[in-house]
Amino acid sequence: MSWPTELRLNPGRNRLIITFDDGEHHALGAEYLRVQSPSAEARGHGADRPPPITGKENVKIARLEPVGNYAVRIVFDDGHDSGLYSWDFLAKLGREAPPTPGIT
Predict the structure, then answer these.
(1) Fewest beta carbons less than 10 Å away: which of 23, 26, 43, 100?
(2) Any idea where the domains of the chain sit in the sequence?
(3) What number does CATH give the domain 4-96?
(4) At 48, is the secondary structure helix, strand, or coil?
(5) Residue (of 57, 13, 18) closest to 34 by Cα position
(6) What is the pLDDT of residue 81?
(7) How far apart are the first and last CA of the chain?
(8) Sign (positive/negative) of CA torsion 90, 63, 33, 37?
(9) Computed over its alpha carbons, how large is the radius of gyration of the chain?
């Protein structure tokens, strides 16, 4: 399991930059993180198919709250704050994220 060595927001608060101790590095957009939220609310409370989440193109990250040594709660400016993003989940999202032009 990789551990984060850096977790920060860009000045526009629309991107989370995360670096892991194995050298893995990702810049994840707020919209992508919001749509991929691991919360039960966003995942459909156990439904076979989660409901589509739309209209989050302009969402920002209000703040990051550490949760123990294993995750971070991302609080979005649309009020969503129930998803806990584990380090493994963030790494998975980073590896699966669609490329964003001009972002490294």
Answers:
(1) 23
(2) 4-96
(3) 3.30.2020.30
(4) coil
(5) 57
(6) 93
(7) 23
(8) positive
(9) 13
Q: How many whole angstroms separate alpha carbon 9 and alpha carbon 13? A: 6
Task: Take residue 57 and report the two structure tokens written for it.
Answer: 């193109």
Backbone φ/ψ region at 38: left (φ over 0), alpha (ψ -120 to 50), beta: alpha
CA diameter of the chain: 37
Statement: the pTM of the whole predicted model exceeds 0.90: no
pLDDT digits (tens, 9 = 90+) for 1-15: 789 999 999 999 999
Torsion of CA 13, 11, 100, 103, to 10 degrees: -150
Q: Which helix (DSSP H) or strand (DSSP E) does residue 100 occupy?
A: none
d(CA 16, CA 2): 17
- Residue type for 88, please? D
User: What residues contact 94, with CB distance under 8 A and at least 6 apart?
Assistant: 18, 24, 26, 28
CA distance 12 to 10: 6
